Amino acid sequence: MRSRIATLIVVAIVAATFVVGLIVGAQRDDQDGPVDLVVLNGRVYTGASGTFAEALAIRGNTILKVGGNRAIKRLVTRGTRTIDAHGGAVIPGFNDTHLHLISGGLGLQQANLLDATTVEDVATTIRAFARAHPERPWVLGRGWYYSPFPGGLPTRQQLDSIVPDRPAYMRCYDGHTSWANSRALALAGITRETPDPPGGIVVKDPKTGEPTGVLKEAAQELMAKVLPQWTRDDRLQAVRDAIATAHRLGVTSVQNANGSAEDMALYDELRRKGELRLRIYAAMSIDAPLAPGEADRLDAIRGQFEDDPVLKTGGAKLLMDGVIEAHTAVMLEPYANKPTTGLPNFTREQLEAIVTEMDKRGWQVWIHAIGDGAIRMSLDAFERAAASNPPPARGRRHRLEHIETIDPADVPRFGRLGAIAVQQPFHGNPSPTQLDVWKANIGPDRASRGWAQRSILDAGGRLAMGSDWPVVSLDPRLQINMAINRTTPEGTPEGGWLPEQRLPLAAAIDAYTSGAAYASFDERRKGTLAEGMLADVVILSADVFSQPPARFL
């Protein structure tokens, strides 16, 4: 028998426009008996219809009624709990459509460099973490940015000066590049003689031929054999820690962008213990070409976790390219400052073959596609699959993840193909250094096509949003602020970066709620606040719909 999730999620009010506290209560899943909870005096955003109400009532784990205060008050009985929203916005629970739950939880136990914006900040953060954990044989961290370092990349000598006594290994914020000190390189046997592995680059000093300490893409696997190995208990605790972090931020559902049978077993163990207080739709990681029997094995896993409101799979995730900052995103034309079009992980033929096969088996295909070349190849693969196979029983909702710079000719194809644009707007946080890297690497014309969310929406495409945590913060505020203002959290640049791509607030919230539910085939049970929908509810401390977008944070 499936364990019950704590399906009522109401976030406590602690900040001007958002929330970081959480009340989670396991509710009855029956539909009889008294009303369990009512929320009054709110600006209740019902969802995709764009309508508002004042109050709502919850019985069991579903919404019983949405309406005016007077009508909802009539449902109150002796056992009913009442929450006064004090005029704040009441919205569906946030549904993060793209993150890495276990690595995010594990990252909470490492040096966090996401707030380090200068070389000095990076050094200070790592040094402090190393001093706080003298018992650890390795110093691990993640979250460094390319932009603070001269030439966009750090060196082993810099990390040697910070951590001279132990091996140290820091993953970049995007996960596509890592930085090792000399002790770590020596343990992994990485020398000037080490060749680039398929799909990866061991960065070497052009003058000496020695490794610089930077490993790109698949070259990071060279370190895997010597890194400390996380135990099963470590990973279980990581999921618990990730759930607690999600709760603090009003995230009630997540869509995990990579996964395995082992990961699903971890989630299922927590579910059976009553600890999985978060709805998870997990994509299984796949590679091209598929190994013999791999598709059948994936089908068997899907059969164990199919269409469950708490835990399910049905998505298959491919990594098509890298990132613009490291010159590994696949572009239609060469980079402006390097004679390469990027580092594709598959040929066109391999990609089309695996997408067509997974489509035939009824899987939803997710493709990491950042560069305009990868985006076009992926859309072509979706088109080929649709021409080769009859529609799956539940329809086609294939997804492109990231979509950082796109050729204008491909914008309307999302709507025509029914493909979902899954974006993480805060990846495009327009700090001066980030914009400088983009302009240098791909030139001003392609940089001007960055994160074209409004263009895709206006052309009939569907949007869904997420964070890509731990690449950036799990906080939905940062994503929504970037989507509606196109500025940094500090409000720069004035007027916004590419302001024509700004979204209305309702459209951004839809992308994090109803659009996100559509992206996981769940729009009939969550993502809007309507009678019969699951009671995943967030209360904000202000009516964000009636204030200027610039005041959202």
Please tell me about this protein's structure.
- The chain is globular.
- Strand 4 (43-45) and strand 5 (52-53) form a beta hairpin.
- With 553 residues, it is α/β, with parallel strands linked by helices.
- The protein has helices at 69-73, 101-107, 119-132, 156-162, 182-188, 232-248, 261-272, 294-304, 348-360, 372-388, 413-417, 432-447, 453-458, 476-485, 505-512, 514-519; strands at 8-12, 21-25, 37-40, 43-45, 52-53, 55-59, 62-67, 81-84, 89-92, 94-99, 111-112, 139-144, 168-172, 177-180, 200-204, 211-217, 251-256, 279-285, 311-319, 364-369, 399-402, 420-423, 462-465, 537-539.
- The strands form five sheets. Strands 10-17-18-19-20-21-22-23 form an eight-stranded parallel sheet.
- The protein has three domains: 1-93 and 528-553, Roll (Urease, subunit C, domain 1); 138-223, Diaminopimelate Epimerase, Chain A, domain 1, CATH 3.10.310.70; 232-512, TIM Barrel, CATH 3.20.20.
Globally, the shape reads globular
Mean pLDDT: 92
Q: According to CATH, what is the topology of the largest domain?
A: TIM Barrel
- Rg over C-alpha atoms, rounded to the nearest angstrom: 23 Å
CATH level 1 class label of the largest domain: Alpha Beta
| Count, helices | 16
| Largest beta-sheet details | 8 strands, parallel
- Give the uncertain stretches in residue-range form: 1-27
Taken together, the total number of domains comes to: 3
Distance between the termini: 43 Å
With strands numbered from the N-terminus, the spatial order across the biggest sheet is 10-17-18-19-20-21-22-23
CATH architecture of the largest domain: Alpha-Beta Barrel
Let me know the number of strands: 24
Q: Tell me roughly what share of residues is in helical segments.
A: 25-40%
CATH homologous group name of the largest domain:
Metal-dependent hydrolases
Structural class of the secondary elements?
Answer: alpha/beta
Beta strand %: 15-25%
| Assembly type | single chain
